[in-house]
Amino acid sequence: MGLASGSGESTDAWADFLTDLRERGLSSPLLVICDGAAGLIAAIEQVFPNALRQRCLVHRLRNIEAKIPAGMQAEIRDGYWALFDTTDLQTEPGPRLVDVVQARITAFADRYAATYPAAMKILLTDAAGLTSYLRFPTEHHTRIRHSNFIERTFGETRRRAKVIGRFPGETSCISLVWAVLDRASAGWRGLTMTPAGLRHLQDLRRHLMDPPRQLPPPPATAPNPADQPDPVTATG
């Protein structure tokens, strides 16, 4: 949908890229999946303020593991993924399911905070961004809670660029990246769409993009003299 070169990952650079997509006809997405790049996050909130933002769970786990001794990483990793396992829950996707998983995250952080304070601080930073995907249909959860989909494409691009070594110019670089994306897109698989899932997405879009507005109170009207009771006249 969009490809452009940039000199960095500043907010302005990302905002220009996203604004170009919007001006070419892209309506606000329901969900944007990203890593922890501060410039990208700020640009998303600026250009698509109504979209939900999902923090990549894989990137967040890597950040946490970097603060954990090697001997304890397996335990923390297993516990981390268990936080997001909702197969044993009967709660439907939505705010209530988000609250359940957020409570798990808080309890997990409290359990390990004394031993690994830096790692648990990372877990709790932008914790709300870890659970946005839980508001979407259950059959989409495993695909929209991380950015592995695009990361694999980046890996293919780097592999081909390494062979070339040095590009003669920006155009040749962009052409190669576009060719990789074009070839990769032929094998991309879409999300499973069921009638119930489509209704869920439609309701979510209405809630995010066109939330119901509170009706204004009816205007006050002056009292009608004809409706007033007759005054009581005292006689002596």
Tell me what you see in this structure.
With 236 residues, the protein is mainly alpha-helical. The protein folds into 3 domains: 9-55; 57-146, no CATH class; 147-182, no CATH class. The protein is built from 10 helices and 2 strands; from the N terminus they run αβαβαααααααα. It has helices at residues 11-23, 38-47, 57-65, 73-83, 95-112, 117-124, 141-144, 148-164, 170-185, 195-209, and strands spanning 31-34, 52-55. Strands 1-2 form a two-stranded parallel sheet. Helix 2 links the parallel strand 1 and strand 2. Helix 1 (11-23) runs parallel beside helix 2. The longest helix is centred in the middle third of the chain and has 18 residues, at 95-112. The chain is extended and about 100 Å long.
In this structure, how is the largest beta sheet organized? 2 strands, parallel
The number of helices is: 10
Report strand order across the widest sheet.
1-2
Count up the domains. Answer: 3
End-to-end Cα distance, whole Å, is 92 Å
* Contiguous uncertain segments of 5+ residues: none
Averaging pLDDT over every residue, what do you get?
Answer: 87
How many β strands by DSSP? 2
Helicity level: 40-55%
Gross morphology:
extended
Structural class: mainly alpha
In short:
With 236 residues, this protein is mainly alpha-helical. 51% of the residues lie in helices and 3% in strands. It has three domains: 9-55; 57-146, no CATH class; 147-182, no CATH class.
